[in-house]
Amino acid sequence: MEDIQSPMVFAATVLDLWRRWAFSVSSWGRTVKHNADVGGVEKSAHLAGLARDVVYDGARPGPEADAWLRLRGLKRLPEVDHDHVMPLDW
Q1: 3-class state of residue 89 by DSSP
Q2: Of the N and C termini of the chain, which has fewer Cβ atoms inside 10 Å?
Q3: Using an 8 Å Cβ cutoff, are 59 and 23 in contact?
Q4: What residues contact 26, with CB distance under 8 A and at least 6 apart?
């Protein structure tokens, strides 16, 4: 498996996710200021370009997406209005 901690590998993997479960990205990389303004955590993966907040075009995917992500070193954290996708070990 490629290094999911590489922003380019992470972005390519998120693109593969998008091909399977269509979504829009509502947040990608963030500056420290923007992260603070939106209430992000201090060591957010967004600050390293290793997180995406996604809003699906249809229904939110379930366990199949979680298994697909885990195999690629990622996880999703469901929020109220979006999913937060980031490396498993972040």
Answers
A1: coil
A2: N
A3: no
A4: 53, 54, 55, 82
- pLDDT value at residue 19: 97
Round to whole Å and give the CA distance between 82 and 89.
20
**C-alpha to C-alpha distances, 79 to 53, 54, 55, 83, nearest whole angstrom:** 9, 10, 10, 5
Sheet arrangement for strand 83-87: 23-27, 52-56, 83-87, 74-78
Coil, helix or strand for 61? coil
Residues in the chain: 90
Which SS3 state, helix, strand or coil, does residue 33 take? helix
Tens-digit pLDDT profile for residues 19-47: 999 999 999 999 999 999 999 999 999 99
Q: Does residue 69 carry a pLDDT above 60?
A: yes
